[in-house]
Specification:
With 235 residues, the protein is mainly beta. The protein has a domain at 102-234. It has no helices and 16 strands. It has a 16-stranded parallel β-sheet that branches. It is elongated and about 60 Å long.
Length: 235
């Protein structure tokens, strides 16, 4: 598709969608129809009432996309809310990401919080903060640093899964983060501050602060004395 003119919004107003080269909103703007563009940069507040497809996305402020969203490189330094599914190939979140349905791509680097109504699928998933995942988090490599509050997921799967507690950088936040999940399954699994029904893996290491119902392992199992595991079985 040939992308022609730019869409620049300075101030506030409602604008049609369509095919653009660059979309830039500085202020407050609403885009009423689907958008296909090379870059989608928001400095302020914006609302897209349909789908958004962009090569690169930068959000400094607050943006809501009512439909689905596709992007190549994405940087969010504020809040991004996507009502439908989100195909975000390379995403860096320094704030908050909310996705109504499925989230997928290649690499995710999240320093903040995310809420996803469906499954998450990435090659590499790094998160330092908190999350709520209504479905399965599946990635080749999963690295999670729990900084605050209670994070939740239905299942976590991958080749190498690491969940560690992180001390908050904020002096008034004293509580450590924790994870509540039904099933964790991977080749190598290391968990801290995690409450899980079932953990499966070749090599399973249960670190401090865990409450695990059942561990199934094929190679090796290590348990910290400050964690509880009701049952462990080599299979």
């Amino acid at each position: 598709m040939i992308k022609g003119q730019n869409l620049t919004i300075n101030g506030s107003g409602n604008y049609p969608g369509g095919s653009y080269d660059k979309v830039s909103i500085r202020g407050e703007g609403t885009i009423e129809n689907a958008v296909d563009c090379s870059s989608y940069h928001i400095y302020g507040t914006s609302e897209a009432l349909a789908d958004v497809k962009a090569g690169s996305v930068k959000v400094v402020g607050e943006t809501e996309v009512k439909g689905n969203m596709e992007s190549g490189d994405m940087l969010v330094m504020g809040t991004l809310s996507i009502g439908g599914k989100a195909g975000l190939e390379k995403v860096k979140i320094l704030g908050t990401l909310e996705v109504g349905e499925r989230l997928f791509g290649e690499t995710a680097n999240i320093k903040g919080s995310i809420s996803v109504g469906g499954d998450i699928e990435y090659e590499k998933f790094d998160l330092s903060g908190g999350f709520e995942i209504k479905g399965l988090l599946n990635a080749g490599t999963v690295n999670i640093g729990l900084r605050f509050g209670e994070s939740t997921a239905e299942e976590i799967g991958g080749e190498k899964i690491t969940v560690k507690r992180k001390t908050s950088l904020l002096p008034f936040v004293k509580d450590e983060g924790s994870l509540v999940v039904k099933v964790v399954e991977g080749d190598e699994v290391f968990l801290e501050n995690t409450k899980a029904d079932i953990v499966r893996g070749k090599l399973v290491k249960i670190g401090t602060g865990c409450q695990i119902g059942r561990v199934e392992y094929s190679t090796d199992f290590i348990q910290d004395k400050n964690s509880t595991v009701k049952m462990a079985e080599k299979i």
